[in-house]
Structure formats: C-alpha cells, structure tokens
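debug: dumping io for the single-chain case to check the tokenizer round-trip. Nothing else runs in this session.
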Amino acid sequence: MEKLKNYIHGEWIEGTGNGIPLYNAVTGEQVAVSDTEGLNFEQALDYGRTVGYKNLSSMTFYDRGEMLKKVALYLLERKKKYYELSYKTGATHADSWVDIEGGFGTFFTYSGLAKRMLPNTPFWVDGETQKISANGTFLGTHILTPSEGVSVQINAYNFPVWGMLEKLSTSLLAGVPSIVKPSPYGSYLTNAVFQDMIESGVLPEGALQLVCGEPGNILDYVQDGDSVLFTGSATTGRKLKSLPSVSGNAVRFNMEADSLNCSILGLDAKPGTPEFDLFIKEVRNEMTTKAGQKCTAIRRIIVPENLIGDVQNALSKALDQTKIGNPLSRDTRMGSLVGKQQYDEVLRKINILKTETELVYDGKHELVDADYENGAFMSPKLFLNDSPFTKNISHDVEAFGPVSTLMPYKDAEEAAALAKRGKGSLVGSIISHDDQFVAETSWKMASQHGRIFVLNRDNAKESTGHGSPLPTLMHGGPGRAGGGEEMGGLSGLHFFLQKTAIQGSPDILTAITKVYQQGAEKKFADKHPFQKYFEQVEVGDSLETAGRTVTDADIVNFSNVSWDHFYAHTDATSLTGTIFDKTVAHGYFILSAAAGLFVSGKKGPVIANYGLENCSFFKPVYAGDTITVYLTAKEKINRGVKGRNIPSGVVKWLVEVVNQRDEVVCVATILTLVAKHSPFIDLNLKNVQKTLNGLTESTQSKWGKMSPQQMIEHLEHTVLLSLGEPEADKCFTAEEHLEKYQDSLYNHRKMPKDFLAPFLNADGSLPDLKHKNLEVAKQSFLDNLKKFSIYYKENPQAEHMNFVFGKLNKEMWELMHKKHFTHHFEQFGLI
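debug: decoded output
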C-alpha cells in the first residue's frame, strides 16, 4: 500500500515506520498509509525559519496576494482528482465543494484583499500617524512586519482542504512560512492538493512543508517567533498550549475547538411562516452536511416551548427524506463519517447523551449503494432535553456527527441564557422576522459567541448559511470554542505579524514607512506630478500652485450652483454669536478651488478622481483671502485590475491649503487613479518608422520561423484587417472564450511566443510574399498604418473582425496593434 510522503526541507520523504493505515470511509478498503516516523522535525522548523522566512518575508504584500491567486488558479484546473479522493472520506459532492472550492475561494478572497488594500512593500503601516510634539517635528506610527519564525498548523479531519487553505491564506499573505500537519484521516486528499501547490512552482523555497501523519514531538522545537494554529478538541488544544516549549517561549497559539453551537427559532416563527420552514431546512442541513462533522454544526436546537412538537415532527420528516449512502450516487444527500474510529467515538457520546435526554428520532435509513458493515455510516439522531436548565448534559457533551438536541424556552431572556450555556461557541443562529426579539437575544448571547447568524425571509436567498465561515469575517469563538480567531479579513493577518511603534522626525518616518508625513521635505520639479505614470510617481513629489483670491462673487456663485444656502455663507446679519466675522466661503468651495489650482488640464496618466479621505477645515476663508495649495504624493497603492480597465494604481495626494498668512486652512487626502506605463510600442508613425530602420534582410529572429519581410507583411495584413480590407470571414476563438480574449487586450501581459496562429496554411507555412523586397514591404506597411489612423478618425464607430479576438472597435484595434507590433519587433530584437 502506498505511503504518503512528507515534504520536509524541500524534499519528499517517506516515514521509516509502519505508519497508520487509512481507509475508504464508504467501502472500508485501505487507501494509503501515513507515516512520519524518522522525520527530523527540528531541522524542518529551522529550514522554515531560515530559508522560508527569508524568501517569503522579502516579498511585498501585493506580490504575496498575486502568489495566492496563481496557486488557487493552478489548483482549480486540477480539481477533478481532488473530488475523486474526497468521496473516499465519505463526503458528498456538495460536502466536497465546500471543502475543495471553498478552500480555493479563501485564497482568491485574500488575494483580492491584498491587491486592493495592502501595500506593495514587505511591511504594512498600521493606523494614523500620531503627532507627539507641539511643533510636529516628532511623530509616531506603527508598522507590521512578518513574525520571524515558522507557523505549525495542526488541522482536523473534517475539512482536509479548506482546513489547510484557510490557515495558509493568512500566514502566506503575512509572509510567514508554514508546516502543515493534517489529521491522518483524509490526509491523502490534503497530500494531493499540497503536491500540486509545490509542483505549481509559484511558492518560494521553504514557504511550505507537510507532515502527513502523527505530529510526533514537533512542538518540542518551537521557539520565540514561531506560532501554532490548532483545530480540534479543546482537551487536546489545552494540552498543547501548556507544553513548556509553547508556554515558556512566548509562542503564539491560536485554538479553534469544536463547540455546542445553537440555533434559536424566534417566538414569531410559527408553522406556516417562512421562518419556520427556513429553520427546519437549516437545522437539517447542519445535521447532515459532512454527516454533521462540522465544528460549526447545530448541536442545540432552541425552540419556543409551545412549538417543540411541531419542530420535532417537521424535522423528523425532513430527516426521513435525506437519503444516506455512497457519495458517488446522485441520490445521496448525506455520506458517512470519516471512519470507523470516529463512528465509535460518536456512538460513545450518544450513549452519554442517552443517560439524561430522550432519543426522539433515530431514522434507520436504508443506505444507497452502501452498507453499514463496511462503511462508517450513521443515521441522524435527534434528542429532546425537556428541562434544559436542569439537565446539563446537552450543554456539555458534543457528539461530532449527525446528532442534535431539541430544547424549549419561554422568552428572549431564556433563549439567550440557553445559548450561553454552551460556554463558548463558534456560531449561534437566530431565525426570526421579529427585529426586537433578534436584537434583544443577539446582544445578550454575543459575549459567548464568535459569530451570530440571523436568517429570515429577507436574506434567505443570498444567505450563506449557519455553518459557513467566511474569509472576510472572523472564525473562532470564546471559551469552549478555543478563544481563537482565524480569517476575519485583513485582521486575520495580525496573528502572524509583529507590531512595532516607530518614532522620529517627519523625514525619518517618511523614509521608513514610504508614506509622506506632513512636515517632511517636499520634492519639487518642473514636470507636473499629474503628468507622471504610476511607476514614475515618488512619495514626496510636490507641486506649489499659484494663488487665488477669493471674492464675494465666488461665495454667491457657489451657493447658487450647489444650492448650499447655509446662513454663514449668505446672511451677514445672522453671524452674531458664531465663530465667523463675516460671510465665509464654503468648505467645499475651498476644496474645489484647490483642485482647480493643482490639476493639470493637459491629458496625462491620471485617469480619474478615486476618492477623498480625511478632509478637515481649520480656519475660515473670507472674501479677499488668497489661497495657495501644496500637493504632495503621500502614498502609492498598487492595484489589481480586471477586465477592460486600464492597468493602474492609486496615488494618495496630501492637499494642504494655506492663506496669505501661511496659515493652514484645509488639509485633505485625495485619491487618484493613475495609469501604469504601457510596455508596448506607441502607434506613432515616426516612432514605428524609426524602430523599423534597424530591420534588415539579415536580421535574425529570436523565435519562430518568420523572415524579416514575412513579419512586416504579416503586420501589414493585420492592419488591413482592422480597416476591413478584406473583412475577415470568421473568428477562430470559441464564443465562450471570446470575452476573456478581448479583455486580455487591456492588460500589460505580452503575447505568448508559442501561440499557433489560426490563419496559417494547413501545413503551418506562412502565406507567399507579395512585395518585391523588405524595403518596399516596410513602406507599404507604414502607408497602411497612416491609413489606419485616418480611417478611425473618420469612422470612430467602425468595427471589424479579427481572427483571434473577434469583432473589435477602434480602441481594441489600437490595443491589439500595440501588443502585436511589440511582440514581433521584440522577436527581431528591434526593441
């Protein structure tokens, strides 16, 4: 039987022992063996701290975000084989989707967050700068840097893929290398996904290692700077947290334990209401999804005492209709537990629950294409605790399977009290259309819950469900749930980052943070900052504008244009007792006038105003005052761009408006969208002609079989196609891919060198030459390029077919020609 290999210090290594046999949860057949005996864990941790840390921490947050996206895309292309393995863990297709593609989705989410909100630097400035001296020469702020260590991630058996990827999404983005330790059960699925992550070639050396089996004494070697993330039982988690190596070395420890989550049916949600039906559906789903093996599953069903019978009957009928069996069968809605060992453990907990509560539903389901003897199948089981304030076993014992307990309550106070008797839960849900009941219950139970999910008819269609943790929201909970926090958007990165206070002068803080600090030296130049591409803008680039004297007419006109007739701007007789001496200019007029002074009217790389932050007005501006503006590049934010948008980044500009007495009257931060410099040749005729001067008959191509003249005639033919001379008769790209191909014209990625042109002759040869020689071909090409420029000035709405990209308009043809010319000019070493 195949042994699962471990990935340690950059090598795939088999354990040297007998290992743990891993079985198909459906058929009982052995699938693989996990074995970690003989591994050098001390060496593994040291390798992560040195090689892994150096490579990951030197990358920027933006680049790490791009790395996550590339890995997720690579895995997504190979998802079919993961599903085939997932079925062997007892998971249905729906269960597997949550685990597999839910894991990929977490990578995509964090990639998007990084590219929208994190800096293109290896550190992250956290929060606003604090002015800690009277004159502003001494400032303070905070930066976040990757914790200098390795993260050991110990995962549970219920989500072999998502469990790994949700932890890695934050640790990798934070720049911290990780050692993944999945549960042996289902680790053959984790192993397959991990192998592809390594084979993708996207991750830097040392970023990830895999221990596929028992953890041995790996935690004996953790030290200051390292971290441990644990998902599993609270008992095991507490033991690990108290290890001397962990507690004695200030090792960061995050625990996410199972919990006795509850769902509360509102007093208003009687049979016949949408909420009653939603409640039954939600509880059934949470009992049967992953066969109840979810740390977020509903274990306690809290119901108005007068509706206990209705809920029991409706839920029993819903469970009766849930077909159990082989996950490969289309009829199956619930698979098996992950193995016989887990089956025995769940059965033991069921027997404990029976000592104090009544088993009111134990559907003996007939299995679909499976049998109870070989597989780890268990039918759903529903208990009734008729006195939940005196019978405590339902609040203390968790059977980690398709098992839940009904219990009654009288009012919102009792519902919240029962919810909190779980002593700390990952999630609690309330299904009700009564806003007052939901509000009162939720804030009373919040202290014992990591997440509260409210469901009713208004959000049901778009709801993600009680049991679905989301990357942008915190996953974790207090007390029994472990007291940990995972994901939660960007806050999930903080666990892996060291926060450091930085103090110094404005110039020093600007140099360290790469964010301009007020009072630091400004860099003035003749070139207007708005005429610089994103890559050319430097933090500190500044502009001092001419002055503008504000007039009474300005104030009156702005009042009329904006409809802002606030008395301070229009009625000099109403100013007694105010802070104003006379009618004052509108704050938004000052901001608008400032923009009029600092913008560049000439077309340039600045695409649009992207936003406004932290605008403050400090002193009034009256008619007769003269304002001057200082515009300074404060911060640059790289930006991922999709679809048909111009590749660009966001530049934050500090706007300081002063009056004739050099008093600051307004400070604001404006955001502009600034185009990135295109790597492709401009279609300017003189520029193209100058480039072609270097092309001769003897010029050798760097790839492909084209001669210089064939290349020029090929480009000329494409230019003629863009004029409809002749009109291409078809597009060779499939309709479903056409939009993606057209979108690619807008990005800055170069055309592939190995693309097989669809217009080639059947034998792959190029068309016969039509011009006498290269010089004649060059001139004809340039003549038609000039014709192209004139044609689209006269016919701006024209569209013509391209063999690869379909029907293109003026803008798309220009983008296509720029990429295409650059591709072939680079082929012959001209640029």
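debug: round-trip ok. The chain has 23 helices and 31 strands.
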